[in-house]
Amino acid sequence: MVLDVMKPLKHKQLLEYELEGFGIRLNKQPPNIGFKKKEKGGINLNALVPQSELDLEAVKSILSEYKIHNADITLRYDATSEDLIDVIEGNRVYIPCIYVLNKIDQISIEELDIIYRIPHCVPISAHHKWNFDDLLEKMWQYLNLIRIYTKPKGQLPDYSAPIVLNAERNTVDDLCLKIHKSLQKDFKNALVWGASAKHNPQRVGKEHVLFDEDVVQILKR
């Protein structure tokens, strides 16, 4: 989200409020609340930690608005009514967001120090191309991506064009699928250099989990 650093931060809050109304949750995780409808038995509330807002009556009141009279609810943290409603609705979207505050060339160093304290914010100057490296690093982090370099047999690794994987789908098998589906069928094993290897190189199978900037040589049958 790109914002003008010369405008009040209230604009940021207004945009967040508008997105909340459409079910978009920025920089939040889905509520850790168990919710299971059932045919009978009424409302069963299991609070694993003390609750400051939700008790059985409050939960029943919220569920009744959705005509739900039989359900098991498990609260694994100190949850709010809004958290429970989000779980019941089941259509919320949780996405990471970076607030890019532009035009820092027009503010003082003291003001810049204050901006740096705002969570999820990266101050830049598009005109002067200031702080672009910090923005790119933050984008990479928020997108949760890793870079894997391939090494053809008998050649040096290709550091110019890494294979980009999601950090949650980062096995050798995922890498094979990203390069070409046929590699999954022809795969024999792989040699890995880098942080994920116990020694360099390490011979691994498809299930091996790769780390950022590992070097991989895939061997076919």
TrEMBL record:
Residues 1-144 form the OBG-type G domain. GO terms for molecular function: GTP binding; GTPase activity. The keyword GTP-binding applies. Keywords: GTP-binding, Nucleotide-binding. InterPro entries: Beta-grasp_dom_sf (IPR012675), DRG (IPR045001), G_OBG (IPR031167), GTP-binding_2 (IPR031662), P-loop_NTPase (IPR027417), TGS (IPR004095), TGS-like (IPR012676). Residues 144-220 form the TGS domain. The keyword Nucleotide-binding applies. This is OBG-type G domain-containing protein. It comes from Angiostrongylus cantonensis.
